[in-house]
Specification:
The protein is α/β, with parallel strands linked by helices. It has a five-stranded mixed sheet with strand order 2-1-3-4-5. The protein is globular and about 45 Å long. The relative contact order is 0.16.
C-alpha cells in the first residue's frame, strides 16, 4: 500500500471514532506497506485518558510483533501526535510517522515542540506532516462544530 492509501485507512479509523462520539483521530501501524495494527480514539468509551489512537495502535503492533521495538514500522495518524503519543513513538523506536492535520495547540512532532526529533532522546522518529491534511482537518472541524451545536 502507498503512504496515501495507508493514511486513508487511518482516516477511516477516525470516522469510526466520530461515529462513536470520540474525537475523530485514527491511526494505523504498517510494516513494509501492510497494516499490522489499527485503532481510533477510545478515551470516552473506556474512561482511559491514554486511549489515544496512536497509543492503542502501537500497543497492538507491539503485541503482534512480539516486542516493544517497532523499528521497521511506520505510524500513520490523522492528527499530529500530542506529547504522550510522541513519547510513545520514541519509546517504540518507530521507523517514521506520517500525520495529517497539524495540532497548533498540542502537536509534538513539529507544531508546538519536536519531541520526536529531540537529540536528548536515544531514538528519534522522522515525522512528515500534511498527508491528507484536508480530510483529517475537515473531520475534526465537523466533529467540534457538531458538539458546539449540541447534536
Amino acid at each position: 500500500m502507498t503512504h496515501e492509501e495507508l493514511m486513508r485507512e487511518a482516516v477511516a479509523e477516525a470516522q469510526l471514532a466520530f461515529a462513536r462520539g470520540e474525537i475523530p483521530v485514527g491511526a494505523v501501524v504498517a510494516l513494509n506497506g501492510e497494516i499490522i495494527a489499527r485503532a481510533h480514539n477510545l478515551r470516552e468509551a473506556t474512561g482511559d485518558p491514554t486511549a489515544h489512537a496512536e497509543v492503542l495502535a502501537i500497543r497492538e503492533a507491539a503485541r503482534k510483533m512480539g516486542g516493544r521495538r517497532l523499528g521497521q514500522c511506520t505510524l500513520y495518524v490523522t492528527l499530529e501526535p500530542c506529547p504522550m503519543c510522541a513519547g510513545a513513538m520514541v519509546m517504540a523506536c518507530l521507523k517514521q510517522c506520517y500525520f495529517g492535520a497539524r495540532d497548533e495547540r498540542q502537536g509534538c512532532c513539529e507544531s508546538v515542540y519536536a519531541l520526536t526529533g529531540d537529540p536528548a532522546f536515544y531514538h528519534r522518529v522522522p515525522c512528515i506532516g500534511g498527508l491528507l491534511e484536508e480530510e483529517s482537518s475537515r473531520l475534526l472541524k465537523e466533529f467540534f462544530r457538531t458538539r458546539r451545536k449540541g447534536d
